[in-house]
Amino acid sequence: MPTSRRGFLRGLGMAGLGLAVSPLLxxxxxxxxxxxxxxxxxxxxRQWVRVVDLKKCDGCEGRKTGPACTEVCRSTYxxxxxxxxxxxxxxxxxxxxxxxxxxPCMHCENAPCVNVCPVxxxxxxxxxxxLIDHRRCIGCRLCMAACPYQxxxxxxxxxxxxxxxxxxxxxxxxxPPIKGTxxxxxxxxxxxxxxxxxxxxxxxxxGALYFGDxxxxxxxxxxxxxxxxxxxxxxxxxxxxEELGTEPRVYYLPGHGQESxxxxxx
Amino acid sequence: MGKMAxxxxxxxxxxxxxxxxxxxxxxxxVILAALVxxxxxxxxxxxxxxxxxxxxxxxVFWGLYISTFIFFVSISLTGTFxxxxxxxxxxxxxxxxxxxxxxxxxxxxxxxxxxxxxDMGRPDRLLNVFIYGRIQSPLIWDVIAITSxxxxxxxxxxxxxxxxxxxxxxxxxxxxxxxxxxxxxxLALGWxxxxxxxxxxxxxxxxxxxxxxxxxxxxxxVTAWIYAMTIRPGWNSTILAPxxxxxxxxxxxxxxxxxxxxxxxxxxxxxxxxxxxxxxxGWLLLGLTLAxxxxxxxxxxxxxxxxxxxxxxxxxLLFTGGQAMLFWFSIFGGIVIPVALMCWPKTxxxxxxxxxxxxxxxxxxxxxxxxxxxxxxxxPLMPFFTLGQYSPTLxxxxxxxxxxxxxxxxxxxxxxxxxxxxxxxxxxxxxDSGREFQFSLRA
Lengths: 266, 443
Fold this sequence. Notes:
The complex is a heterodimer.
Chain A: H1 2-29, H2 34-41, E1 48-53, H3 68-77, E2 87-92, E3 98-103, H4 112-116, E4 122-124, E5 130-132, H5 142-146, E6 153-154, E7 182-183, H6 189-193, H7 199-203, E8 209-213, E9 218-220, E10 225-227, H8 228-234, E11 250-253
Parallel strand pairs in A: 1-11
Antiparallel strand pairs in A: 1-8, 2-3, 4-5, 6-7, 8-9, 9-10
Chain B: H1 3-19, H2 23-49, H3 64-75, H4 78-88, H5 95-119, H6 128-131, H7 138-158, H8 162-172, H9 178-188, H10 195-228, H11 240-266, H12 275-306, H13 309-319, H14 324-343, H15 350-378, H16 394-417, H17 423-429
Helix pairs in contact in B: 2-16, 3-5, 3-11, 3-15, 4-5, 4-10, 4-11, 5-7, 5-11, 5-16, 7-10, 8-9, 10-11, 11-12, 11-15, 12-14, 12-15, 13-14, 14-15
């Protein structure tokens, strides 16, 4: 019967079309994350930022177990061997100088990793932090390709079960690492929620790592409380690779550790 | 010879491989199946232990799997090109190889999907792509484009297959197993070759021809955009999408030439796949190789001129660094030698063209896939990294080879049940006692 065949072919075409647009329909069904929806609706009440004072950071040179910030981060989140969510790197300057620079996740406002994530596992929370929902991440690693700061790591295998655990797994406290997903600095979101400073800030022996709230214009390194805008303005603050337009939330105050007694050519 | 008699004679060698493909075919199928089985075994290990069993690490976090994914996407253009683009432009010489091209397309798309799944850290969450898919992500664009293209290609493969399935039903129905006869009867949709049915079929094929071309272009563009949407040397470029489309044309045509040479020799199809097809495809391949050479040059020149820091890192890696061997091999083996083979009259024959195609396919995998992915990731973007290292492990190789073996296996198995040549169209277009097939290669 000619009409039924025509109907069959039409049905085949519709089925193909249906299959093709199904991800679209899923998207229409609801926003990727509740946090995303929240950030679209209302103005952020807090915007966590970091200020790293390079005049104070001496890279913990001579410390046997490496920089204190990296060490406390490792013992809090137990990432895989060799993965350092805050990496302290020696950077060559002009005139034979060098300085130390700590690199945490930049928690970019225009975060390339959040933009490219196919399933909304990387997202901005209501305080502007970039977090990963490891229960949703499919492990495609496109976010790692997108991050111009190379601040993301992959859980290539099952991690050793950690001995000290503060809370149940959450994107704010991603312990233990989940195999096959991407991990990175979480700005100690869980600890901020319960009124504690970020671990690295608390551990820094020189007080070089400030964190604070851009909305309230305040930062602290647990020893002093400063005005964010005043500190940035008076110390020639810069952001790393700012020209890329990622709007990173980590500010650096230039220096070579002079306040900690470090020589420029050290 | 009456028309019917000539038609019946033409059909025999085309249907013979469906009944008795020969021991050589069976041997190849067994070898390919064994390779696939080995790959599945390796994959099981990878699922258990994680991607740590691969050579991928935090700096070079993509490797053979993603490279081979790009390669498969690339060759999937062939079906559209041979059956749609040439059909729209009024050609008929390609008719004997259109089905081959369509099946290569379908198999390559399945291969691409498989490579993505083995690369995923959490393949168990594959459905998240549909449940939580975000249209902002270029990966979701690719999912949409590839699923649409796969569905469209399968329809486009199936439509011209209907009369041939009916032929199998009528001619082979008595000799094959009852299950296979049922399959033919079911898939033939009651085709009786009436003028009304013909007209409807031609209409449907015509509609699909026009539909499939933009979908195919979108697949290759979007696959390029996965990379071009990132701030990485070599990827952060506007040329990537058209470059992908151009090189997909080239690798698609090269792949068809390889397969058609194999089938021609193995199943004695010299009367159907004639010097005409080789001549036409040869000229196309030459033109596409030159276009690809131009795109490769245009891709590299601006970076090499401006010497931006990370671009320098990438280019020195390719020109003189650790990847220089592969890079220069792909330039000479993939462009210079094939062009010479196609231009020099003595090698402008079936063997020469097939060798050129093999060289092109191998170097397409190297240059357009492997060297697109790995060197870019090797370049350190931050002061705390040095040049990244990557060497694939045995597990990674076996899984990748299983993907390629599986691709060939799908093509071979398909033609175990359906004729490789579009019988009804060939017997139509070669009506004048094969006069059209008398073209010389050097004509």
